[in-house]
Every structure is written in C-alpha cells, then in structure tokens.
Design goal:
CATH architecture of one domain: 2-Layer Sandwich
Structural class: alpha/beta
CATH superfamily of one domain: SH2 domain
Distance between the termini: 24 Å
Number of strands: 6
Radius of gyration: 40 Å
Number of helices: 12
Oligomer: single chain
Length: 431
C-alpha cells in the first residue's frame, strides 16, 4: 500500500481521512524522502559519463541534509512566525508596492514609445520639404549662373533656422513627455498606495466590528497550535512505543524466519458457526452497501490469493484455522455496523475496499477508529511505520493485546468481532 502511494505520489482524500494524525505525519515524511531519492537519481543521470582521468579534484556530491532543531527532530520554519521575520501584512504591502512600481514603469515606457513615433511622423514631412527646397535652390543657382547667390545664402540660413527650431521643438516635446510620464507614475503609485491603505483600514475595521470573524481567527490559530502539538506528541510516543516493543522482545525476526520455513497452505473455510442471530443475518444481507466494480474487486482477490495466502494471512497464529477477527472485502460502514453491536475494545481486520491492503477497525468508548495496515514488504505494520514489523497478522493482533496501537488512544485489542452472515464475507477469497 505504501509503495503504491509513493509510486504515484497521490493518496485518495477519502483514504487520507481514515488516517490518524501520527500516520499522516509519517506519510508526509515518507513522500518527502521519496522526492529526495528521485531527485538524487535524476542528478546522477545528468552527470557526464566521461570524466578526465588527470583531474584530481574531489568531486562535490550533491546531497540534502535535514536541518535539526534542539530536540533533534526535523526543524520546520513557518513564514512570519520565526524570530526576526517580517509580519505577513508587511510582506504583502511590500510585494504590492513593488508590483505597482513595475506596472507604472511599463505603462510609462509604452507611452514614451507612442510619443516618439508621433514626433517622427509629425516632423518627417518638414525635413523632406527642407531637403527639396535646398535641391531646387542649387539647380536654380546653376541655371542662372550663380546670379542669385544672396537668395541662396538667405534660403540656407532660413533652412538652418528651421532645423534649429525643429530640434528645439523636439527637445521641448521630449521634456514634456518625460514630465508627463513622471507625473503619471507618481499618480499611479499614489493611487495604489491609497487603495492599499483603504483595504487595510477596511480589514481592520471588519476585524474590530465582526466578533464572529475574530472568534473564527482565534479558533483557527488554536487549532493550528493543537495540530503541531499533537504531531510532536505522536512522534515522541512512537519512539517510546517502538523502544518498548523491542525491549519486550515481542517483535523480532524469529517469527519471520518461522514463517518462511512453513510451506504455503491454503486455509480451509471454517464450518458454519452456531449461535448466530438469524434476524441480524437477514438485516445484514438486506442492508448491503453499493459494491465495488468487478475489476477492482477482482484485482484485490487476485492479490490476496497470489501473495497473502502463502503468508497465512487471516489465520490463527499456531494453526490454519481462519481467525475470528478476519473479514473479507467490506466497507468502512459495514465494519462500523458490525462493531456497533459490540463493547469497547472490540476489533476486526478487513481488506480495504479502496486500496490493496488491510485496515484495523476498532470500537472505542467514544466511537470508531480505523488504522491502515501496510503489507508491501512481506510483513505487516501500521501505515508508515518501519520498526514494528510483524511476520503475520496474527502476530500483530497478539502483540497489541498487551501494547496499545497508539499511546494517546490506548487502543488494546480485547474482543474479536466475528462473522454475522452466512456464508462468511471472506468466502470468495479462498474459493
């Protein structure tokens, strides 16, 4: 199950809702580790295949190191909450002001280009007229044998005067355009600043006038702080839980070696159980939820027959009889309906209907809990956990009869929830 999520880097939202806070934290950490592993593989592929033999410099190996806090856990920085960080509102104000300045410069540049094109178009005709006048004067001088030298000199002087006037007008027009552009930039920046101030005042006024919004903001901050506290507590509890299990010797490689030596045996379907309330069986049969598609169900059944039956999945620890807590492909609602008739501490292990794997459904004093079980490494462990690996599901159940699933919830597996239908819901897995 964990390998399937890490390959696709996606988890169904409904499946994610079934995870507790500890499993979510571990899942996110595993996904981040998988991203770093893929990044390192891509970096190796991009390295040149041929290297110069004479080079004696030590090549730098790219790597990623976690920054650790004082408690030796991964350090996490939240923008705006660290020492010396700017407030979130100030960062937003600076970003908005910078964007406004860039937009004003862009608009001023476009306006300058348009004005230059207009000046070139306006004065191009005057330049052509002056050139044509000069050529006509030259021809007239040649024809009249320089009889009108004074008039040519006067015309040249007038032409020079016209050019000077044109340049002066062009310079004045350019200065006027620059002043107009600066004025537009100042007006634009001032208007954006005014709008930003008005928005801030409106937000502050709403904060002062809307007690519901203030209360929701306070609750969200409290909830964030509580989630961070729960995540830290879950990590600490997980470490203590792992060390305690290893010290007691209930989780070891002995059970795995014993399981590998046993030949694969197909467990038989147990005989019909006596003492079952037939009224409950009829109600259970009539209230069937919507079933999965044939393709999904067939793939899960094929996975169980090919990979799990050789591992004695669902059997008791010391024989090949199917355990009373084992169930087939049933939904979360079906599991809760079965456990609703039992006392606190009741449990069952079912095959997940959404992903290839198992799920432990537990009846607590205040409701129901569901814990996903990872079986991707020929061992069984709660989702995302590496230390507490069990060779069989029966080993996991026996271990958690004495040790809680989570220290915060203290979930001890006391009473297995058996079958309430005939034939049992796991019949199609062994046919």
């Amino acid at each position: 199950m964990l390998q399937q999520i890490l390959e696709t880097m996606f988890i169904d939202p409904e499946l994610l809702a079934e995870l507790n806070e500890e499993q979510k934290q571990i899942l996110f950490f595993k996904m981040r580790q998988e991203q770093i592993r893929r990044w390192k593989e891509n970096e190796k592929k991009l390295e040149p295949e041929e290297r110069k033999p004479s080079t004696k410099k030590v090549e730098k190996v790219k790597s990623v190191n976690w920054l650790l806090a004082a408690d030796n856990d991964v350090w996490v920085w939240v923008m705006g909450e660290g020492p010396g960080d700017k407030p979130y509102d100030q960062i937003c104000d600076e970003i908005i002001a910078e964007r406004a300045r860039q937009q004003a410069q862009k608009e001023a540049g476009e306006l300058r280009k348009e004005k230059e094109k207009e000046l070139i178009r306006r004065f191009s005709g005057a330049f052509k007229l002056g050139e044509k006048s000069a050529k006509n004067t030259s021809r007239q001088k040649e024809v009249e044998k320089k009889a009108e030298a004074d008039q040519a000199t006067k015309a040249a002087a007038e032409h020079t005067q016209i050019q000077m006037e044109l340049k002066q007008k062009e310079e004045e027009e350019r200065r006027r355009q620059e002043e107009e552009i600066r004025r537009l930039e100042e007006e634009r920046t001032q208007q954006l600043y005014i709008n930003l101030k008005e928005a801030q005042e409106m937000v502050q006024r709403n904060e002062r006038e809307d007690p519901v919004w203030r209360e929701s903001l306070r609750k969200s901050k409290v909830a964030d702080e509580r989630r961070r506290s729960i995540a830290k507590q879950a990590r600490d509890d997980y470490k203590r839980h792992s060390l305690k299990g290893i010290e007691r010797g209930k989780v070891s490689a002995i059970s795995q070696n014993f399981q590998k030596l046993q030949p694969p045996v197909k467990p038989p379907i147990p005989p019909r159980r006596f003492g079952v309330n037939r009224k409950e069986c009829n109600m259970r049969t009539e209230a069937q939820p919507q079933k999965l598609s044939n393709n999904s169900r067939e793939s899960i059944i094929r996975w169980f027959k090919e990979q799990q039956i050789p591992l004695r999945a669902g059997c008791e620890k010391y024989n090949d009889v199917i355990a009373p807590w084992f169930h087939g492909i049933i939904t979360r609602q079906e599991a809760e309906e079965l456990l609703s008739k039992k006392e606190a501490g009741s449990f069952l292990i079912r095959i997940s209907e959404r992903m290839i794997g198992y799920c432990l459904s537990y009846r607590s004093s205040d409701g129901f809990k569901h814990f996903l079980i990872d079986s991707s490494k020929d061992s069984y462990t709660f989702f995302g956990v590496d230390q507490l690996q069990h060779a069989t599901l029966a080993d996991m159940v026996e271990y958690h009869k004495d040790e809680p699933v989570t220290l915060a919830g203290a979930e001890l597996l006391r009473e297995p929830c058996g079958q309430q239908r005939e034939p049992p819901d796991y019949a199609n897995l062994f046919n």
